[in-house]
Design goal:
- It contains nine helices and six strands.
- It is α+β, with helices and mostly antiparallel strands.
- The protein folds into two domains: about 45 residues; about 150 residues, Muramoyl-pentapeptide Carboxypeptidase, domain 2.
- The protein has a four-stranded antiparallel β-sheet.
- A hairpin with a 5-residue loop joins β1 and β2.
- α4 crosses α5.
- The N and C termini lie far apart (about 75 Å).
- The N terminus is likely disordered.
Length: about 240
Amino acid sequence: MAKRKKKKNIFGTVLHILCLLLCIGILTALAPMVITLLANINETYDIPVISQTSAENTEEDWALLLVNYDHPLPSDYSFEILTLSNNEEIDERIYPALQNMFDDARNDGINLFVRSGYRDKEEQEIIFQNKFNECMDEGMNEEEAYQETLRWVAEPGKSEHETGLAVDINSEVSAEDTYNWLISNSYKYGFIQRYAEEKSAVTKVYNEPWHYRYVGIKAAKEMVRDDLCLEEYLENKS
């Protein structure tokens, strides 16, 4: 009986192997048909394949552009300008986020508007010169007036306003309520307060609670979470 049982076990094992090989053979034969069918379905319905990581990297290419005293605007930089209802201009790529932020602020009783958006180099030169003249009128010498002007106005070619990604924001309510709302909510839409007083040693710009810069939602959340200005954030990423 022991011998019969052994033969039976061997027969069962062989049968199992044959069945397995048969299944593999069938699947191998059907694989090209399945692949072709899936390809035809994708082509028929034009199904897009979108990489979230690629989309985020694409945004970073332009949304994290650094323009400051050490990094002038690239000479070949360009973008599509969008004109707002009050004739201020911005990079059209930030408009959806800006509009969403303004809509939600309005729902909270804060009617925001862009006081100053995109400026070309010539306009920045006028603003810089006017501030310089004002400092000179206050009795400063040229070097003192120049350094004081730099605290408030970027040199032409080194202003974020020339990127179209920066906006000075005001509202019809008190400045305190306006800036408190922006500090608490702007990052949700991809905007950061660019020149905070506690970061002036890094940015070299005095406190500007009205100046907001689009950097993208992911970067804005990380910068707020880690208490970083744009210079610090980019340095950490490098």
